[in-house]
Amino acid sequence: MRFIRLLLLFIISVQLDAQTVSTSRPWTYWWWMGNAVTKKDISAQLEYFKKAGIGGVHIIPIYGAKGYESGYIPFLSPEWIDVMQYTIQEGSRMGIGVDMTTGTGWPFGGPNVSIDLAAKNMKPVNGKLVITPTQQKVKRAAPGGEGYVLDPFHSSAMAQYLSRFDSAFRTVKYLPRSMYNDSYEAYGANWTDDFPEEFRKRRGYEIEKQQSLLIDSTNNEDGVLVKIDYHQTLAELLRERYALPWTQWSKAHGFLTRYQAHGSPGNLLDLYETADIPETESFGTSRFAIPGLRIDPDYSIDQFGTPNPLAMKFASSAAHFSGKKLVSSETGTWLANHFKVSLSQIKPQIDELFTAGINHIFYHGTTYSPENEAYPGWLFYASTNFGKNSHFAEHFPLLNDYVQRTQERLQNSISDNDILLYFPIHDLWATPAKSAGNVHLLEVHHVDRWLLDLPFGQLAQWLWKEGFTFDYVSDLQLSRLKVDEKGNLFTGKTSYKTILIPAGTFMPEETLAELKRLSAAGASIIFDQHIPAKVTGYQNHENRQKSFADDLSQLVKSNKITVSGDLTKDLTASGAMQEELSRKGLTFIRKKTADGKTFYFVANLGSTFKEGWIAVSKSEVLSKYDPLRGESSLSYRISKDKKKEIFLSLLPGQSCFLQEPAGKSDTSVENRKSEEFTIKGNWELTFLKGRPNVPAATKLNEMKSWTMLPDSAIYFSGTACYKITFDVPRQLLGSKSVLLDLGDVREVATVRLNGKSVGTAWSIPFQLPLSKDLKEKGNILEIEITNLSANYMRLRDQQKPEWKKFNDINIVDITYQKFDAAKWEPMPSGLLGPVKLIYY
């Protein structure tokens, strides 16, 4: 018997070791409210994640639910460490990875951060620098995580903060994959105890004696130079004393790191690059022109801004430059109001991230909720609900399969961008700051405050629109570039054709020295419109300015750089390729596999393109792969100018890969014409399952929202079946291909034709290919539609609003006001059509 037990233990151990964690599958934030978790419920929810196709979870302890105080587990207590290790063991058994935040809530801080180590604010007042603690506490802290936010510029604050984790993890056997550092939100922090000394060592003069210049608002040149020096010092201290110590500590303890550097006053490229996995953020809804795509009208652009791929590219550029495999994103935060987010709204946001270089999606998010908790369970105040009580939980695996197929290719490839676009952060520092503490905070929300209006941002927008591929590069990163015998710039991991310098004003002399070095080695360097006029640094500026101007003039005269008046011409001459995809209204990223094969991921996030012949710069890329359905097709031709072109059919909302072919070309699509047949008649509508009860069946002679029906359908959340019998024209049966176009679907449609499954349509356009099961007479079409939960919550908040029982912020709406679904208008639900057959 003892031998059998040992054998079973060995088998289980082997099974645990054999499980591999998938990074190609999407991961999710997992909010632990009050850490009031049990092992039984942890296992149950991990089982849901596994079945849904989730590859991993990210534990974030936050505030708790009222009435559950007896179950709260203090953060980092032995009991908390025990449930954390149990989660990792269970995750390993199921093939689910686990990350955790190095703290609770955000940003870093807690009970072992004294007021001396807490964030500080400096303000010049009447000729003196007045230093005061910001008094900021950890936001949304969990039990055991409350306390001051640490000073991110302090020489020893991070080490003191991490000492608590040293003690807690001293005997831990099962470690999370990665530690996580949330976006910088140390509001008003702009000083540290030894800042004057560090400033003097780094900048060569005393900041205290230049207070008048530091607060100058007249755009005085000396004042601008002092402000640049001040920001430069903050940026260096943030990297050296905050980002690097945390990543080095994590590495020493066996953790990877995920880091959201955005929101900070430092150079994002240098900060992101300190982490193993740079992480950006997609907060709110992009304004895609995809027909039929809904945007929550209550979302406030003025308050939150909108996602922007040019901001996302800071994280991916850092990853590409240093050859990091993974670059992640907090995804789906406030995509729409609670209970109103559809799968069809999520996919375009993810596609935007993919084209911006992101390849490791983290949903924001799911909330741990006791299994016996009544609907809707525990919810986090600001995220899209990707948990098991979500209205799209049944169809969630379809989205995750799509993400997995896409990320698998994106992760197992390297960047194939041509241009390194220099980020002239000193030009930003020369402008008036618009954030707290009078410092520039480079956030992902309001990119208009620091990115889009600068020449750098305008140039990046132009490159994106014109189809040039690029990554950003910082002053510090330039020093690591080398040049090969062909003049290509090489990072050790990635290669580029040219460096492009925006039309800026300021440049450090160290940066100019690096450009001279690279130019002498044969690199292509292009200045847009003009060369920079001024060197940075207030100390001894006049003499250094003369030397800077002389060196720059010699470099220009040597004909080793280009001052461009025609960027398209000069970039093309450098070897950078201009892709037609962008000018057709498509968004893309170009990458290559380890064996050198090029491919594109392409998303149609607009409304101008549907189908047509397109030339791509890599002429071997002639096959289309659809990650939504896992299908490949191939059609290409030789154009009149002897270029290979691929026929691309990609409707608004769709996406695909373009890759090397694996079969014979089909050019018959060139002359194809589509025809349409609208399915009309009487529909039988039967409600199948849902809340608060199942309405009576009815018949419809027109497509309309079921909220317009009598009975309780106006409050119904669930699934209903539309059924119709129809005939088709004889010529349709002889067509080469037939698509079922469902028109406007609210929100997911599962289809059967003549008793056989056709598939499920969950994203725009709501189309499904039909097999040969159509017949001329008596076709039976059944379409099961599942809607949102918003309409039911309208009733629930009228009758039983007791589910809103959370501490801290409790639950708020998308405008951060008290949540009350009872005030909402009914959300259209059901099959709104028109339903058509499109055939070729």
TrEMBL record:
Coiled-coil blocks: none
Residue ranges occupied by any Beta-mannosidase-like galactose-binding domain in the UniProt entry: 721-805
Domain of life: Bacteria
Signal sequence region: 1-18
PANTHER family: DNA-BINDING PROTEIN (PUTATIVE SECRETED PROTEIN)-RELATED, SECRETED PROTEIN
Keywords from the UniProt entry: Hydrolase, Signal
NCBIfam families: rhamnoside_JR
Molecular function in Gene Ontology: hydrolase activity, hydrolyzing O-glycosyl compounds
InterPro entries reported in the protein's UniProt record: Beta-mannosidase-like_N2, Galactose-bd-like_sf, Ulvan_degrading_GH
Pfam family of the protein (one): Glyco_hydro_2_N2
Protein name: Glycoside hydrolase
